[in-house]
Design a protein that fits this description.
By secondary structure, the protein is an alpha/beta fold. The protein has helices at 2-12, 27-36, 39-49, 59-75, 176-186, 231-242, 294-316, 336-344, 346-351, 384-403, 435-439, 470-488, 495-516, 523-542, 554-569, 600-605, 607-611, 625-634, 642-653, 658-670, and strands spanning 78-87, 92-93, 96-97, 101-115, 118-127, 142-150, 169-172, 191-194, 226-228, 248-258, 260-269, 280-286, 326-332, 352-359, 371-374, 425-426, 447-452. The protein folds into 3 domains: 24-98 and 262-488, Aminopeptidase (3-Layer(aba) Sandwich), CATH 3.40.630.10; 101-258, Glucose Oxidase, domain 1, CATH 3.50.30.30; 600-670, no CATH class.
Length: 675
C-alpha cells in the first residue's frame, strides 16, 4: 500500500495540477491579472485601516466603512450599498443575538506612588488613545483607586482562598470574561487587570511584550471593566507583590453599550449573462478588529478591495470580458455580521453560488505565517474548492520558480514585496471565520477560505503594517480573483476542463487520505475512512450538476475512474452500528450554534447542561470538539441515521463514540434546532 501511495503522490506532482499552467484560465488572462493587481496599492489601503479601532458599531468602524465606500466608488463598483442591520441586544438574526454597539470615550490605568503621604501618578500603564487594545472589549464605565491582588487564573474558588479582593483590582492570567463571575460578582472586585496570553502556537508566550485582545461578555449582567497588560508588566507586578509591596492603581473608564447597527458595505460587478447574472460569487472579509489589526483582518479587506479595483479597471479597458455571473464584495463584522446578513437579506443567501473568504492573507516572515487555501467541510462536497486549489498550486509553482531564479513568465510578485515561495497548504479544512457561516447546513454554500495560520502576533498590539508583505497581498488577490472570475464564467463550454481538473484533484485527495490511513489503529476505522472517501469523491463529481456542467458521458467516466482507484486500496465499508434514529433540520433559526460574542446552543440549552456534553470537548486525530459539533449538525438532512452521521465525522476528524454524537443530537432536538 505504501509503495502504491508513493507512486500516486509521484504522479500527482508531475500532473498539470502542479505545472505552470492553469486548467481554466488562459495565458492572456493570467498576464492581465498579474499586470494589474497591485500589492502596493493594497498595502496603502491597509496602512489607513490599521489606524482605526474597528470594533462593531463604533465610530472608528464607520470611519473604516466610509473610507472603503469612497474607494470602491472611485473604482467603479456597481450597486454600492450600506446595509444597516439594527442591533439592540435583543433582536435575533438566525442564531445571532444582535450585539449592541460598543463605544469608548476615555480609558486610562495609572500606577500611583506615595509621596509625603499623597498618592500621585507615577506610570501610565494603559491608555485608550495610544493603544485602545489595552481596554477589554465590552468594558463598562467605572473608576477605582485601589490596590492590586493577584488571583492567578481567577476562574476557580481556590484562587480566592485567603484573599480579600472586595473593592480592589485583581490581576489574572485568564480572559476577563471568565474571571468576572467570581472576582466581581461574587467577591466584589472593582475591576480586572488581565495578562491573558495569545493563542497557542510554537511561539506561545515567547514575546513577553505582547498585549492580548481582551473580552468581557456582551450579555453578562456583571457591569465592570478590564484592562489588558503585557506578560512583562504582569511579571513585574507579581515579583513586587511577592516581596510584600503594595501596588496602588488608578483606573478610569468611560464606555457604553448602546443600540446601533451592523454596518455592512457591499458592491458588485454585474454579470453580463441575463440567464446567469442573478447567481453571485461573493467575496467576504471581516472589517471589525481592534487597532492595529493589520493582518487580522485589514489584509483580507484590502485584498478584496484590490480585486474589485483591478477587475473593474480591466473590464473598463477591455483587458477581460465582463463575467457572466455577478461578483459581489462584502465588508462586515466577523461571523455575527455574516450570520445576520444572510438572515436579514435571505435573497443574498439564495443567490450566492460560491463564497471566497479572505481572513489574514498578508503576513510576512516576521509573523511565522503559513498560508492556506482551505476547502469547505466534507459535509459539502463540491468542485469549487478544486478551482481554488488549482490557482493555489499555480502560485506555489511559479513563486518557487521565481525564488530559485528560474524566471517564470508570471511570478505574481511586487517591486516592494518579498521574493520567497508562497508554499501555500492546499486542501485542508479549517474553522474560524465567516466562510463557515456560508458553508453551514442552513445555507450550504461552497467556500474557498484564504488565510494565514499560525500568526504569532494575531490579536495583539504587534499585528502592525510593518509585518505585511505586498507580494503576499497580491498573490492572495490573484488566487481569489482568478477563482471568482473562473467560477463566474463556467458553462457547458468549460465542462470537460473542469472534469479533468476534478480527476486530478481527486487523486490529490486520495493521496492525502492514504497518508491518514496508517494513523488509524483498527481495520474497522480504516474501512470507514475508505468508504467515506469514495462517497465524498462521487458526490464531488456530482456537484458539477449545480452549474449545469455535467454531461451524460461523465456517468461512465466517473464510475470507471473511481472504481479503478478504489480497487487499488479497497472500497471500504461503513463502521457498524445500529442507532437508526433520523433527524431533520428545522426551518429556523438559521446559522451555526456558536457565532461571535454569543453562543446560541449554550444559551438555549443552558451552560451547565452544555458543559456535560463530551462531544464539545472531544479531541480526534484531525479535529476537536468545535469541528465535530459543527459537522454533526451539518450532516443532519432527514435521511442520515445517527450511526451514519457518527461514521461520517469519524472519517473526517477521527473516530468518536456514537453515544457522544447521539447525546449532542438529542440536545439539539431539545432546543428545536432539529426534529
Amino acid at each position: 500500500m505504501k509503495v502504491t501511495a508513493l507512486l500516486l503522490t509521484s504522479l500527482l506532482f508531475t500532473s498539470p495540477l502542479f505545472s505552470q499552467k492553469l486548467h481554466l484560465m488562459s495565458d492572456a488572462q493570467v498576464q492581465a491579472f498579474d499586470a494589474e493587481l497591485s500589492g502596493e496599492s493594497a498595502k496603502r489601503n491597509l496602512e489607513y485601516l490599521s489606524r482605526l479601532h474597528r470594533m462593531r458599531g463604533s465610530v472608528d468602524y464607520r470611519t473604516a466603512t466610509d473610507f472603503i465606500l469612497d474607494q470602491i466608488k472611485a473604482y467603479g463598483l456597481e450597486e454600492i450599498a450600506m446595509i444597516e442591520i439594527p442591533t439592540d441586544g435583543k433582536t435575533f438574526y438566525g442564531t445571532q443575538r444582535s450585539r449592541p454597539a460598543w463605544n469608548v470615550d476615555f480609558a486610562e490605568l495609572w500606577e500611583l506612588e506615595n509621596i509625603n503621604g499623597n498618592w500621585v501618578r507615577k506610570d501610565r500603564l494603559a491608555n485608550w488613545e495610544a493603544i485602545p487594545l489595552t481596554l477589554a472589549q465590552d468594558s463598562e464605565s467605572g473608576a477605582a483607586r485601589t490596590t492590586l491582588v493577584d488571583v492567578g487564573s481567577g476562574t476557580s474558588e481556590s484562587d480566592y482562598a485567603g484573599k480579600d479582593v472586595s473593592g480592589k483590582l485583581v490581576l489574572t492570567s485568564s480572559q476577563p470574561g471568565g474571571v468576572a463571575p467570581l472576582a466581581v460578582k461574587k467577591y466584589g472586585a472593582a475591576g480586572i487587570i488581565s495578562y491573558a496570553p495569545n493563542q497557542v502556537t510554537a511561539w506561545y508566550k515567547e514575546d513577553e511584550n505582547l498585549i492580548r485582545w481582551g473580552h468581557l461578555q456582551t450579555f453578562s449582567d456583571i457591569k465592570t471593566f478590564a484592562f489588558m497588560v503585557s506578560l512583562k508588566q504582569a511579571r513585574s507586578f507579581q515579583t513586587r507583590l511577592a516581596r510584600g509591596e503594595e501596588i496602588m492603581l488608578d483606573a478610569k473608564v468611560e464606555a457604553r453599550k448602546e443600540n446601533g447597527s451592523y454596518d455592512i458595505l457591499t458592491g458588485i460587478i454585474k454579470g453580463s449573462d441575463p440567464n446567469l447574472n442573478t447567481e453571485e460569487i461573493v467575496f467576504t472579509c471581516h472589517l471589525d478588529h481592534p487597532r492595529p489589526g493589520a493582518n487580522d483582518n485589514a489584509s483580507g479587506c484590502v485584498a478584496i478591495m484590490e480585486v474589485a479595483r483591478a477587475m473593474t479597471k480591466m473590464i473598463r479597458e477591455g483587458q477581460i470580458d465582463r463575467p457572466k455571473r455577478t461578483i459581489r464584495f462584502v465588508w462586515s463584522p466577523e461571523i455575527e455580521g455574516t450570520t445576520s446578513l444572510l438572515n436579514y437579506r435571505p435573497e443574498m443567501a439564495k443567490n450566492t453560488v460560491a463564497n471566497i473568504h479572505m481572513d489574514m492573507v498578508g503576513g510576512n516572515a516576521n509573523t511565522k505565517a503559513i498560508f492556506h487555501v482551505s476547502r469547505s467541510p466534507k459535509s459539502l462536497p463540491n468542485f469549487i474548492n478544486s478551482i481554488g486549489e488549482d490557482f493555489g498550486a499555480y502560485v506555489n509553482e511559479v513563486s518557487y520558480q521565481y525564488a530559485t531564479g528560474a524566471n517564470p513568465k508570471y511570478p505574481i510578485a511586487t517591486e516592494e514585496g518579498g521574493k520567497e515561495e508562497l508554499n501555500a497548504t492546499l486542501g485542508q479544512f479549517h474553522m474560524g471565520s465567516d466562510f463557515q457561516v456560508f458553508a453551514e447546513g442552513s445555507f450550504r454554500i461552497p467556500s474557498i477560505y484564504l488565510h494565514d495560520w499560525p500568526d504569532r502576533y494575531i490579536h495583539t498590539n504587534y499585528d502592525v503594517p510593518g509585518n505585511i508583505d505586498p507580494t503576499k497581498l497580491k498573490r492572495a488577490a490573484f488566487i481569489g480573483a482568478g477563482s471568482a472570475y473562473t467560477i463566474a464564467n463556467l458553462d457547458q463550454s468549460n465542462a470537460d476542463q473542469v472534469f479533468e481538473l476534478m480527476k486530478e484533484a481527486s487523486m490529490q485527495r486520495t493521496s492525502m487520505m492514504l497518508e491518514r490511513l496508517p494513523m488509524l489503529e483498527s481495520q474497522e476505522d480504516k474501512d470507514n475512512l475508505l468508504f467515506h472517501h469514495w462517497e465524498y469523491e462521487t458526490m464531488a463529481f456530482g456537484s458539477l450538476k449545480s452549474f449545469n456542467l455535467y454531461k451524460k458521458v461523465f456517468d461512465g467516466k466517473v464510475s470507471q475512474f473511481l472504481t479503478g482507484l478504489s480497487k487499488l486500496w479497497g472500497q471500504g465499508k461503513p463502521a457498524p452500528g445500529n442507532n437508526s434514529k433520523v433527524y431533520s433540520r428545522s426551518d429556523s433559526p438559521k446559522g451555526p450554534m456558536s457565532v461571535f460574542g454569543y453562543n446560541y446552543f449554550n444559551d438555549k440549552l443552558g451552560a451547565d447542561k452544555a458543559s456535560q456534553l463530551k462531544v464539545l470537548r472531544y479531541q480526534g486525530i484531525w479535529g476537536g470538539g468545535g469541528a465535530y459539533s459543527y459537522e454533526i449538525l451539518n450532516l443532519v438532512n432527514g435521511t442520515r441515521t445517527v450511526t451514519e452521521i457518527r461514521n461520517a465525522v469519524s472519517a473526517e476528524f477521527g473516530a468518536i463514540p456514537v453515544e457522544y454524537v447521539d447525546y449532542y443530537l438529542k440536545a439539539l432536538a431539545s432546543i428545536g434546532i432539529i426534529r
